[in-house]
Every structure is written in structure tokens, then in C-alpha cells.
Specification:
- By secondary structure, the chain is an alpha/beta fold.
- It has a single domain (5-280), classed as Metal-dependent hydrolases (TIM Barrel, Alpha-Beta Barrel), CATH 3.20.20.140.
- Helix content is 39%, strand content 15%.
- Strands 1-2-3-6-7-8-9 form a seven-stranded parallel beta sheet. A two-stranded antiparallel ribbon has the order 4-5.
- Helix 5 packs parallel to helix 8 (199-211) and helix 8 (199-211) crosses helix 10.
- The longest helix has 17 residues, at 143-159.
- It is globular and about 50 Å long.
Amino acid sequence: MKILQDMHIHSHHSCDSACSTLPDIRKDREELGIAHFGVTDHLHTQYNMPDIVSSRRDFLCFNFPENYHFGIEITCMAAWECERIASGDFVARGDVPIYGFRDDERPFDGRMCLDITLEDMRANGIEYVVGGIHWPQGFPSSRSEAIDNYFQQEMFLAEHPLVDIVAHTWYSLEMASGDWYRNRDKEHIDWGVHLEIPEEIKTRLGETICKNGKLAELNIATLTSYSEEVAVSHMKMYALWKEMGVKFTIGSDQHSAHPNKEQFVKMENLLDRFGFTREDFALPAFRK
């Protein structure tokens, strides 16, 4: 199946290592024959909002076509992180909380947050929101705790009124389960955890995404970089969801200067292998 959309792309305005320019994003998608696409730079907390403002101003400098959309990728955060940033409780310590406070080991109290309001979205012309998980809340001490932690975050995103697309489900679960966030080395990555996610949890998440009218993302960067075993386990879950009525988007999650064309070909092969057709895909209801 030819990929005709890419709703998850990062520009050089994003707070991480992304480096593509907005005009190059358009040029590259037109060369790939992509009909609809959008820039979605990272917003973890309000600390990153200047990046989104900068991205939007840059976006408005060009006469981009209507099929080029302006969105964001927002991270599920612990509420205490957003509250600490809102209070300014980091300036005196010299902290630079680009990614929140990843080294603070306080116990997670169960409160989650997306640090954006509808007013923020309107002020910055944000047409759609991709909601994703990028790390655990707290430090899970076992596979089962990591799975439950991520499941609760996934459900939060699937039920949040501002989220349009639930991104790369279970992304970074292997690092949460392997305690990578403390050790930061390859020895603390637990790929096997992806094969231990209970079917009941996968089903409940799919049902919630469908019930709340969200779109589920097939993320090119993750699905084409996983091992065969892990990729198949995720594609089987997505195939189950499509039988349940879930609709999907496709996102390259590009951070490089230009897209990896080989990844697009691999993703198209996966779509064919698991029986996906154009009818299984949709676009978010863009806000104007």
C-alpha cells in the first residue's frame, strides 16, 4: 500500500536533535508523493512553548499549500513537573528542564498532565495534536510495573479531549522496563517486555481509542527499526484494532534533515503483510 500521509514530522524548531527545515519538509513530501503531511514539533511542558511559537512564526512566513498542516507532538507528563515549571521552581537551581525533570526520583502520585490549553492551541494555530509517551512516570521496578505505567499513560492520552492521534504506542517501554533512565546504557534495555504485554491490555486500549474517536498512529521510525519479533507483535495488535474499527494515521517521526526512503518502503511492505488498505486510514479533524 502506497503511503499517502505523514502526520508526524519534526523540524529544527523542535527541542531535541531534529534538523529539517519547514520548506524541506514540504519538498521532500512532494517528492515522495505524500498527499497530506504536517509538522509536529515537541511540547513536553510550557517550558517548550517558545519553540512552538517560533515554529508557527516560521510556518507563516511561507505560502504553504492547504495539505501542509501545523500540529504538535505533546508528551504525557507527571502533573508535578508541569506545576513546578509553572511556579518557576527551577530557575534558582540553574535547571534547564527541556524534558521536564527526568532525574527527580520522587514517587509518581498518579496525576498526569498535558501542559497545553485550548487557548494555547488557538493562539498558535495548532491544527491537531499527536499525543505520545516518551518515558515512564517514576521508575518502575519490574516488567509488570512498566507495562502498567505505560498502559495508564496510553489510556490518559486516548481519553484526553485535546489529543487527536495516539502516537507510537509502547514506545520506549523497553527502556522503562530495563531501567535505562537511571543507567543510560544498552545493557539496560529490555526488548522482551514488548512480548509480555497482555492481550487484555492491548484490547482495552484499542477499545478506548475507538470509543473516544481518536486515531492510532503507525509510526514508521519505530516499527521499521524494531526486531522482526517485536515489529510483528505490534502489527498484530494494530491489525486487531483495525478489526475493532480503529482508524489510523501514518507518521515518519522524522528528526533527520530528510526522510529515510527505505523506511517508507519497509513500512509499505508491513502494511501489505498485515492487510491494511486505504480505508483503514483517516486524517484528524483539523482545527482552524
